[in-house]
Design a protein that fits this description.
3% strand, 2 strands, elongated, 6 helices, 144 residues, binds zinc ion, 47% helix
Length: 144
């Protein structure tokens, strides 16, 4: 079992003054972790039994729970809660974007069929990643 997961849970419980020796404490901490999972959270909070299993090492925590543990730990350490909830992904930038920038928008795929580029639109109407794709797609549609 991942020792650091158990230690992180214990540290979080200590910081939040939650007694994870009790079922009500396990329920409370499972709920706090569930809230931290944000958009990735399962439909219902994790059960205290699930958290108990994770603490005992008999249940492997899901990737979502592991991330929630990291996020809640970071939030407790004073990190901004939006940053704590965010996940790191590799992106390719053309503009001036500092490392660690929080991006709140969602990426979409360019609608020109042969183009495979995903991008973050500048506004809600942008569908092509650039003018060239838009021009090629207009030409394609016209000749159909
Ligand atoms: Zn494109």
């Amino acid at each position: 079992m991942d020792q650091s997961v158990t230690e992180s849970i214990q540290m979080i419980a200590e910081e939040l003054e939650i007694d994870i020796g009790s079922w009500s404490g396990k329920r409370e901490l499972a709920f706090q972790l569930w809230k931290m999972a944000g958009v990735n959270a399962p439909a219902r909070p994790w059960s205290p039994e699930y958290l108990h299993g994770v603490l005992k090492g008999s249940t492997a925590p899901s990737e979502i729970m592991k991330r929630a543990i990291q996020s809640l730990g970071a939030a407790i350490d004073g990190m901004d809660s939006d940053i704590a909830k965010a996940r790191a992904v590799e992106v390719f930038v053309l503009g001036d974007v500092r490392p660690g920038t929080l991006i709140k928008g969602a990426s979409i795929k360019c609608i020109y069929p042969p183009c495979k580029i995903n991008f973050i639109p500048r506004d809600s109407r942008q569908r092509y990643h650039d003018k060239k794709c838009r021009a090629k797609d207009y030409k394609r549609i016209k000749t159909q």
